[in-house]
Specification:
Its main location: cytoplasm. This protein is a positive regulator for the phosphate regulon. Transcription of this operon is positively regulated by PhoB and PhoR when phosphate is limited. This protein is α/β, with parallel strands linked by helices and 236 residues long. The longest helix is centred in the middle third of the chain and has 15 residues. Helix 3 links the parallel strand 3 and strand 4. The chain has a five-stranded parallel β-sheet, with helices on both faces. A four-stranded antiparallel β-sheet has the order 6-7-8-9, covered by helices on one side. The chain contains eight helices and twelve strands.
């Protein structure tokens, strides 16, 4: 199995050292940075498989680096887990809205974090699925992990892609948030239910262009959760 590389971005040496030891014990390669400039240089030069990104950093916040990574084509789909002491809901949602795939609040257990890393890497490497699915003008290509609307590629993060892939594989059925967490995030990974709502909102936004709005494919089912329905596709 190819060694996977994790970039730890945190200004506290003790945390980086603890994470490096925990990651190397389970055969991850660990890269380290204590500021966003060095972190971005490492991302460009060494292409890690996933980033553990602290919120508060010298010379700029982790959120600034996250925004930059999501703007750039080469790093847009790079999985990111935010490490934060901020527990207020607005801060968590802000990080997820910018493009983080998951978050974990300090202090945390290294075993839980490693479980989340593995789950996120499994989701991000699911490109083996070569299914091509289509609803009206919306096409999902599992092999290239791209989504097209009227042949134009949509800008969509890896978690939104996985959600859409699951929904299109299981149309017209309502799923609770917990069921979606189990199916898309993994049954052995603890993620709060509100995380689903954030990614659903991002998926709906990704399904909207200046010319077409396919966000209606993702329907809210009151008292239950969400479902994917081809009846939500625009007509005419």
């Amino acid at each position: 199995m190819t060694e996977r590389t994790v970039l730890v971005v945190d200004d506290e040496f003790a945390i980086r050292d603890m994470l490096r030891m925990a990651l190397e014990i389970v055969d991850f390669k660990c890269l380290e940075a204590d500021n966003i400039l060095d972190a971005h240089a490492i991302v460009v030069d060494q292409r890690p498989d996933i980033i553990l990104l602290d919120w508060m950093l010298p010379g700029g916040s982790g959120l600034e680096l996250l925004r930059r990574l999501k703007r750039e084509e080469a790093t847009r789909e790079l999985p990111v887990i935010m490490l934060t002491a901020k527990t207020a809901e607005d801060n968590v949602i802000q990080g997820l809205d910018v493009g983080a795939d998951d978050y974990i609040t300090k202090p945390f257990a290294p075993r839980e974090l490693i479980a989340r890393i593995r789950a996120l890497l499994r989701r991000s490497s699911s490109a083996e699925n070569t299914d091509r699915m289509q609803v009206s003008l919306l096409v999902l290509d599992g092999k290239s992990r791209r989504v097209y609307l009227d042949e134009a590629p949509l800008d969509m993060g890896p978690t939104e892609f996985n959600l859409l892939q699951f929904f299109m594989s299981h149309p017209e059925r309502a799923y609770t948030r917990n069921q979606l967490l189990d199916q898309v995030w993994g049954a052995n990974v603890y993620v709060e239910e509100r995380t689903v709502d954030v990614h659903i909102r991002r998926l709906r936004k990704a399904l909207q262009t200046s010319d077409m709005d396919y966000s209606g494919l993702i329907q809210t089912v009151r008292g239950t959760g969400y479902r994917f329905s081809s009846r939500g596709a625009p007509t005419g």
